[in-house]
Amino acid sequence: ELEDIYEPFKSKRKTRAQTARDLGLQPLADMMRVSSPIAPATAAVRFVGEAITTIEAALQGARDIVAEEAVQAPGVKERARALRFVSRFVSKRKGRDESQDRQFSEYWDFEVDFRNIRSHQYFACQRGEQQKHLTLSWRVPDASLDQVIKSVVGMTRGPPTGAQAVAWAEHVTLAVADGVKRLLMPAVHREWRRLVKERSEDESYDVFRRNLSAKLMAPPSSMWLKQQCDIIVGVDPGFRAGVKMAAISMQNGDVMEVWTGYPHNGDAGKRDTIDRL
User: Fold this and answer.
1) Helices (H), the chain
2) How far is Cα 48 from Cα 50, in angstroms, rounded to an integer?
3) Of 67, 108, 221, 259, whose CB has the highest number of CB atoms within 10 Å?
């Protein structure tokens, strides 16, 4: 997608990777990706100084850079998106006050496949989350997530050659695993939430449309009762502006009379409305 291609160039808050770049660790990250023939510790010691005090700190900064670059590579996000087909939507109880969150008891320990979430279930869970009674998350099988990590590692590191290839590969694997879990999956989870919300809204709108169509297209009650009727009376309930009513001829559809009644304004208003009807 175009948005995925543009992702590396979007302005964003300062990340751990950007902090590492500002400290001059981009060359070490490049050495990590291409499996430099120099040992990781030997390569990292060159970057130790006043700002970076240990070899491990230098390597961690390089891993942060590799992690960000790996998850922003074209095609990586699409691989993670595909995990939705094996993922489950999870709702857990957050509070412990039964008097407050009893209405959400059905969703205290609730799981459902991504493809099987019903609109009423999602909206109920969303309300529970908004009222701080539920926590919502996604459960992705570890084996499926590991497959994505392995595929991204293969896309990130250079050819596994050289005496230090295995040592550098360990760092790349750590970096990619961190990037996928810390950076990529939270963004993908937000996308899944948007997808489920849009799908649930479409489903609820469709249900409303069908129900409204059934109401509007329903025949007059006399047809259900199999009785002869000359007039249809339509009623639009109202309180402040009154109850608006209209009488229509069954013979030719002409509007016979339109009036407004106030049955809630005491006995007189009630009698007048009944008499008009």
Assistant:
1) 2-6, 16-22, 26-34, 40-45, 55-71, 76-81, 98-101, 119-130, 142-156, 165-179, 185-216, 221-225, 266-276
2) 7
3) 67
The side-by-side arrangement of strands in the sheet containing 243-249 is: 231-236, 243-249, 255-261
From the CB of residue 180, how many other CB atoms can be counted at a distance below 10 Å? Answer: 23
Contact present, 235 and 227 (Cβ < 8 Å): no
Which residue type is seen at 83? L
Q: Model pTM?
A: 0.70
Count of beta carbons in the 10 Å neighbourhood of residue 241: 9
Q: 3-state class of 214 per DSSP?
A: helix
| Cβ(191)–Cβ(79) below 8 Å | no
Give me the average pLDDT of each 10-residue run along the chain (277 residues).
Answer: 67 86 95 92 93 95 96 92 95 78 87 93 94 94 96 85 85 96 95 94 90 76 58 81 86 85 83 80
- Please tell me the total number of residues recorded for the chain in this structure: 277
Strands 255-261 and 243-249 turn out to be antiparallel
User: What's the rounded Cα separation, in Å, for the pair 250 and 252?
Assistant: 6
- For 37-46, letters b (16+ CB in 10 Å) and e give ebebeebbee
List of long-range contacts for 9-16, beta carbons under 8 Å, 24+ apart = 15/64, 15/68, 16/61, 16/64, 16/68
Backbone torsion region of residue 94, taken as left when φ is above 0, otherwise alpha when ψ lies between -120 and 50, otherwise beta: alpha
Angstrom distance (rounded) from CA 33 to CA 159? 9
